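Hello forum,

I keep getting stuck at the same step: I have a sequence, I want structure tokens, and every attempt I make locally crashes halfway through. Rather than fight my setup again tonight, could one of you with a working pipeline run this one for me? It's a single chain of 390 residues.
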Amino acid sequence: MHLPFDISTNSSMKKTFITYTAFILAMCAFITLRIYAGSVSASERKVADNTIAVSADTPVPDDAADVQETADAMEEEDEPVIPVVEDDPLWHGEITPKTEFEGLLPRIICWGDSLTVSLDGKSAFPDILRGLSGCEVINYGVEAENTSMIAMREGGMRVNVKATVIPAEPDLIPIFLRTENNGPVFFLDNGDGGVNPCSISGIEGELRKLNGSYYFKRSTKGERVAVEDNTRFKTFGMTDAKEGDVLVIFAGTNDLPDSNTVRNIISIERKMLEAAECDKYIIVGLTYAGGIPEIDAVNEELDKEFGDHFVDIRKYMLNRGLADSGITPSDQDIEDIQKGEIPSSLRSDHIHGNKIYHRLLGEQIYRRMVYLGYVPEWEAEGNKDDEEDI
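Reply #2:
Ran it on my machine without issues. Output:
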């Protein structure tokens, strides 16, 4: 920088320059401190305000090591706390049934995707339901299926057979399947899930998928049958439906819906209930916030549509899942909850729940069934057999 004067030849001007420079530096420091102070968040100020005061009897640390030791001790005493922002009397405590249970125990039929599948026959929520309710529980979960695919197996979406002939002998014959809207069919891609034994024109048999094409083989020898075009293909899940069944539908995750497309899921689930002629049912809310950004709006629409039949398990898991499981939240759990994700301590991966999650889900569905009068409430001690090793 070029100065308009020579400070080396004028001591008075030199002093003035030094004073002026010091003033400028002081002002810069002052402004910097003000900016920093202003950037302190309200939450940081609150933490500072709530710091435990040192009493007159508390010895003041003499050096930095003592200060750090004291700070570490105080930090160890603090446990992470997740506030319960919402509560529901149906989540816990004594259940006052809306309708008293009467009659025989029903069957419980669970339709869903991989979030319903049981890998060991004892740890998934349908297995927990079996132990809690004492009912026969049938699991028709198939991984990677969206709501339409699940409804095809259940009967909520019609599947037709193109005109063909079923021979008298139990031979394997090719058949062509399409939905009523001429869409593709996805039976047996990732599991049976109530497809077999199936039937065409009253002929029972087995559906197979070989090299991407479907084949049918009748179970027993009989008369040759000419199948008309657009004859309905019937899965076992359709023909096995019984009056009094309770349906549990946990579908929609693979649709990745938003606040607009959730109406399509609702429409299909309604068709599933109509196909089963069922008025006793539970609809489980969606949980995968990472893939469904508008998940709150989606679950709100499901809640509006299905009311008491709707179990918002995500809201429960965020608010009470860890506490009801006796789990102290980890830093990751707290971060997950702040993002609206099911805490990591209740998940096996970014989408699926672990055994603790499934136990909680089974308990919440069972509680809702008791409330609706679908099943009786049993003593807790008598329903723990299927919960062992979870």
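The chain has two domains: 103-155+240-390, 157-234. If your local run keeps crashing, start a new thread with the error log.
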